[in-house]
Input
Amino acid sequence: MKQLYKNILGFIEKEEKNLSAKRKIELEDAYHMVVFLRHLLTDLKSEVLSTGFENKQEEITFFKSIKPEVLGKLIYYNKIVRIESFRPCSSEMLSRYYTDQIKCLKKEYKKHIGNTDFYRYHRSGRTDKDDLFFRRGNINFFDGVNSFIFEADPAFSTFYDYKTARIIAFDLIHSYLLCCLEPERSNPIFDEKVASKKVFSWTHSKNALIELIYALHVSGSLSHGRGSIKKTGRVFEELFEISLGDIHHAFHQMKFRAGEKASFLLYLKDSLEKYMERDL
Output
């Protein structure tokens, strides 16, 4: 079961590689990801219901990190299908359309996400209430939960796993809409004509850069570690003209990688050592 959890992010990343080279996600691609993620979530449910969890921490990890990642991406791609299905054909209307979509998203955020205690709990990285939020059978109906919970399978939901998924989806949808308005933000790998105009361009993955940022921060290599991760991230975003999105969430995903956790740092180490040996 633990190995399955670690492989989930790898499955999604592998499927998304076909989209990474595109500046904009097409309707067919988004629909393909909806089908893929829906099947993946169904397989996860079958595994959980048949195998269960070895201990309390494994259950918390699943409902706090693994399931929300799959469900959040599913909500995200499903939203893209809806957005692109109603996209106007007129290029003159596109900017207004995506701007309106962002306004609607922000209204939804204020109403259902940003003003909740759980949102602040999630963003702060706290763990003190994980036992309450991410274990089954703890739903407090006196809080007036969303009515969808009555249709959810209590053996495969804690209610807050869904809330976490919505936060993940919100961040992804917001980034997508910004990329639609500013196409250059949609992909860190630019064509040669655009890249030649830049002083520097980041040509590895976004996760690799986030891994490097965290390593520099926690090691105290930048300002003795006094600056926040968020501010450090902005420095690199401005330097490379790249949007990293929610780097806290991205880093949290790295903890569940299969194999080496700091794979990019190992890649840097190996590359440098090979270069040194070549000059001997």
Notes: Residues 188-280 form one domain. The chain is about 65% helix and 0% strand. Residues 44 and 135 are 16 Å apart (CA to CA).
